[in-house]
Amino acid sequence: MALIDYANPSKFLALTDRLIPWLTGGTVLALALGINQIFGAPEDYQQGATVRIMFIHVPAAWLSMFGWAVMSVAALGTLVWRHPLADVAAKAAAPVGAAFTLICLVTGALWGRPMWGTYWVWDARLTSVLILFLMYLGVIALWRTIEEPTRAARAAAILTLVGALNLPIIKFSVDWWNTLHQPASVLRLDGPSIHPDLLVPLLVMAAASGLAFVTLHLAVMRNEILRRRIRTMHLLQAQRAPGS
Amino acid sequence: MKALAALFGRDVKLAVRAGGGAPVAVLFFLIVVTITPFALGPDLALLQRIGPAILWIGALLASLLALDRLLAADLDDGSLDLLTMSDTPLELALATKALAHWLTTGLPLVIATPLLALFLNLDLAASAAVAATLLVGTPALTFLGLAGAALTVTLRRGGLLLSVLVLPLAIPVLIFGVAASNAAVVGPLPFGTPFLILCALSLTGLVIGPVAAALALRSGHD
Fold first, then answer.
1. Is B2 near chain A, with CB under 8 Å?
2. Nearest alpha-carbon partner for A212 in A48, A10, A24
3. Which residue from A minimizes the CA distance to B173?
4. CA A238 and chain centroid, separation
5. CA nearest A104: which of A144, A72, A136, A141?
6. Interface confidence: ipTM more than 0.90
């Protein structure tokens, strides 16, 4: 089953129809397991129970970047391989990625209030995530402004790739500008600096959030394909209408 | 090469003679600097401290507002279609257009900076530092804006969207521009490091901007 086999939207729809119930079930199970483990996890000796916000905050932060990566690969699919579903995938990833970025920002603010004493600080990592959120909104706005789907897809793909080139520069410049947030403590070369009792639930929650991302992404892609079919039907109907 | 030189000359001539270009951008810059003390109060010490930041934000907004003229007139009279179909590589043609645009809107902003710095009570070293950072930083804004303008030129209400798309990408330029200016005034950081990064950003923009803009224009055509 090569990727090109699913260039046919009907085949892809059949696949999603079979996959989505399983993925939904898997997401619910993984979330249940993760939440169970969260409440089994020990409280942090300094942060108390608020450390549990981490189990939602950190996976959302990872997925916020993962969403842009998905969009960039899909953008290459649109521009280079001209895969018919790539622009559907790119369009569907934007709101899902933006939602996870918003979750990351909101949970971060709620965590910051008891820990740092303020909802928002102009710290490097927070600011980069905020800029990422603004860029997601920009892409969504571009999608909504151009009416014709294929043209919108190419414009959004170019913006996505320019954004992907610029994100490391923005990240670097904002880091240079200000730093208060703790540096990365799981994805490090010398192994995670976080205790296993907290790490295991975190990884379970990350898997659950990842499953949620994939499920939502496929569901939005399915809706987008159906929406395009409806659009085509409307256009055909308008062409056949008397007096045109 | 000859075609590019002709294009450059045409764009500069049009910008200088048609009106509404550079003088209005500089006027806008002046107005932004003028209204800031009304919001902050006429405290000269405060203005001196945040002067480089005000000048940078004013220049950023002024160059942003001039961007929708970068390609729109050419789209209206059809010369953009000619450029897209001509033998000259579109990337080079767009880079030339961006350079001509910078020369007629970016450079006047840089030249106006020392005068506006007087209003903000900046001393000679500070205003020279801000002008120098703007000189190497505004090309980056133009090249990024070129990509944004190419994406939005065919849209009916592209102007606002253009700003929304370009501003997040302009953040590094703003950060290093203001950092270099402040480093020259108060220290403790050396002026050279952020200044060189700013040059690097402009050169990166010179590569990314025209390529992305050419891609956008070509894909909008078929």
1. no
2. A24
3. A173
4. 36
5. A136
6. no
Instruction: Report yes or no: B134 and B109 within 8 Å, Cβ to Cβ.
Output: yes
Determine, for residues A142 and B165 on separate chains, whether the beta-carbon distance falls below 8 Å: yes
Of the partner residues B164, B171, B204, the one whose CB lies closest to the CB of residue A170: B171
A161 touches chain B (CB under 8 A): yes
Q: Which two tokens stand for residue A175?
A: 């880091």
**B61 is written with which tokens?**
């907004």
Q: Is B151 on the interface with A (CB under 8 A)?
A: yes
Q: Do B168 and A138 touch (CB under 8 A)?
A: yes
Distance of CA A14 to the CA centre of its chain: 24
Q: Could you say which of A131, A158, A176 has the minimum Cβ distance to residue B168? A: A131
- On whether any CB of chain B is under 8 Å from the CB of A179, the answer is no
Over its length of 222 residues, how does chain B's per-residue pLDDT go in tens digits?
788 888 888 888 888 887 666 788 888 999 998 898 888 888 888 888 888 889 999 999 998 888 877 888 888 888 888 888 888 888 999 999 999 999 988 899 999 999 888 888 888 888 888 999 999 999 999 999 999 999 888 887 777 888 888 898 898 899 888 888 888 777 666 778 888 888 999 999 999 999 999 988 888 765
Number of H helices, E strands in chain A: 6, 0
